[in-house]
Amino acid sequence: MNRDTFEDRDTFQDHDALQERDRFKAGGDSPNCATFQWNAGGWFGAQLGSTCWMLIAGVVLLWRSPGAAVATLIVFAAGNAAGTALWTQRRRLRPLRAMQGLVAIAGLASALATYVIDSAGQFESLGTGGSTSARSMYLMLAGMVFSLLLLFYLIDREGKSGDVGTTSRRH
Predict the structure, then answer these.
(1) What's the N-to-C CA distance of the chain in angstroms?
(2) Which residues form the domain of 49?
(3) Among 59, 144, 148, 157, which residue's Cβ finds the most Cβ atoms within 10 Å?
(4) Do the Cβ atoms of 38 and 30 come closer than 8 Å?
(5) What is the pLDDT of residues 122-149, one digit of tens each?
(6) What is the DSSP code (8-state) at residue 90?
(7) Is residue 3 part of a domain?
(8) Do the Cβ atoms of 36 and 156 come closer than 8 Å?
(9) Strands, DSSP E only, in the chain?
């Protein structure tokens, strides 16, 4: 088989993926683990989904507080640049570690954007419906980031044990 022909490329990629999976199950460190896989839609959906509120807040604040708006848009851009940088390193990084990094980046960017908006006295003015204080936002962010990091770790650990999607009962 020739790796350069279109028909054979998928076969080689499937073969390479199976070898990678077997190497990982045997205890080798692999950039692709059994439970988390690189997926552009999942990656950029998570990245943009966790940062798009900053873009919206920045645009809304342009007329109310231009300085806070620009700072919020910079935080949005920096968070997305860092997430994209992780994506470009996907051949060297395990998907689990990269996704945990993305969650941490999004959490830190959100906390920084919250600080910028609150420091400008604009946090409550962005609320629609109920009221959430900046302090509550920090607590929710910390809880979400911690919970997601723990959840991803547990999913990966269960995947390494080979019990993904099964219920093990010992009698």
Answers:
(1) 50
(2) 39-160
(3) 148
(4) no
(5) 888 887 656 778 888 899 999 999 999 9
(6) T
(7) no
(8) yes
(9) none
